Amino acid sequence: MTEEQQGQAPDDQGRRAERAERTERTKRGVSARVRRNRKIAAAALAVVVLLGGGFVYWAVTAASNGDANVPTIASTTPPTTPSASATTTPTPESTPTADPTPTETQPPAAALNITDPNSITVLVNKQTPLAPADYAPGDLVAMSDIGVPSANGHSLRSEAATAVQTMFAAASAEAGLTLDMTSGYRDYGLQTELYNGYVAELGQEAADLTSARPGYSEHQTGLAADISSQGEGCVLEQCFSTTAGGQWLAANAHRFGFILRFPDGATATTGYEFEPWHYRYVGTETSAAMQAAGATTYEEFLAAPAAPGY
C-alpha cells in the first residue's frame, strides 16, 4: 500500500460507517411509516374496488346498448414519412468534337516521280530536259525479239515493250488491225542528227515544232513509240487520226498504260504540233488516272507549267 493509499484509508472507513448508520436510521423510520401507510392503503383500496366495479358495470351496459360514446384510443402509429426521391445525377453535356482541320487537296499526280529519267512517269518537255542530257536506259528490249512488227528494228524499255506487245495483240483481236512500231528509243547522238536535219530543211522555228532538240526528246527515255497501222497509210502524218488504227489507239491506248502525248490543239502547252502517232508509256495507273481526270495533256495532269518553247 502506498503512502497516499494509507492516508486515504481512515477517511474511507469513516464514510462507510456513516453510510451504515444512515441506512440503519432509515430502516427504523421506514418501519413506523410502513405500518401507518398500510392502514391508509387498505382503506383506499376498498374505495377503488368499489368505484371500479361500478365503472365496469357501466361499460358493459353501454356496450350492450350500442352506446356510441364509448371512448376510443387514438392510433399512435406515426404518419408515414415520404421517402426522399432518388437524387438524379445530371448527365454531363457532351463536349462537341472539333472538326478536323481540312488538309490541302493534292493534285492527282503529286506522288509521281517526274524528275528521275529512270521513272516511267518522268516529265520531259522543252522546259524539263533529261538529266543527264545523254541519259541511256539500261533495260532496252528489241521489239523484234518479242514478236512486235518494227520496220527499223526499234527497241523500248522492258516494261514499255511488253505493254506495246499486249496492246498490238488487243488491236488485232478486237479490231482486226495490224499495228506497226515506226520509231522507238533514240539515243542522244541519233536525236542530234535528226534535229539538225529538220533545221536544215525547215529552219529552226519550224523544226522546233516538229522535232525535239537532243536531250529534250521523250524517245531518249525509251518510253515513247511512234505507231502506224499497216495498209492504211498516213504514216507519221496527221491524217493517221482518221484511220481505223489511229482511232482505235486514241480510244484504247490508256488501257495499256499509254497516253497521246501531243494532242490536237495543245501546241501552246506541249510546244509541238499535233502528232496522232506519238504515244508515251506512263503505266496503267497513271494513264487511267489521267483519263479519269479528263486531262488533255500530261502537263495539265501534273499541274506542270506549259512548255511552248525552250
Task: Give the SSE map.
Layout: H1 3-64, E1 140-142, E2 155-157, H2 158-175, E3 179-183, H3 188-202, H4 204-210, E4 224-229, H5 244-252, E5 258-260, H6 267-270, E6 278-281, H7 284-293, H8 298-302
Antiparallel strand pairs: 1-2, 3-4, 4-6, 5-6
Helix pairs in contact: 3-4
Characterise this structure.
It is built from eight helices and six strands; from the N terminus they run H-E-E-H-E-H-H-E-H-E-H-E-H-H. 27% of the residues are buried. The protein has a four-stranded antiparallel sheet. With 310 residues, it is an alpha+beta fold. Helix 3 packs across helix 4. It has two domains: 1-67; 140-302, Muramoyl-pentapeptide Carboxypeptidase, domain 2 (2-Layer Sandwich), CATH 3.30.1380. Helix content is 42%, strand content 8%.
Number of strands: 6
Mind telling me the C-alpha Rg? 60 Å
Named CATH topology of the largest domain: Muramoyl-pentapeptide Carboxypeptidase, domain 2
Order of helices and strands: HEEHEHHEHEHEHH
Shape: globular
- Strand arrangement in the largest pleated sheet: 3-4-6-5
Largest β-sheet summary:
4 strands, antiparallel
Number of domains: 2
Structural category: alpha+beta
The helix fraction, in percent, is 40-55%
CATH architecture of the largest domain: 2-Layer Sandwich
Distance between the termini: 128 Å
- Low-confidence regions: 1-37, 40-51, 53-87
How many alpha or pi helices? 8
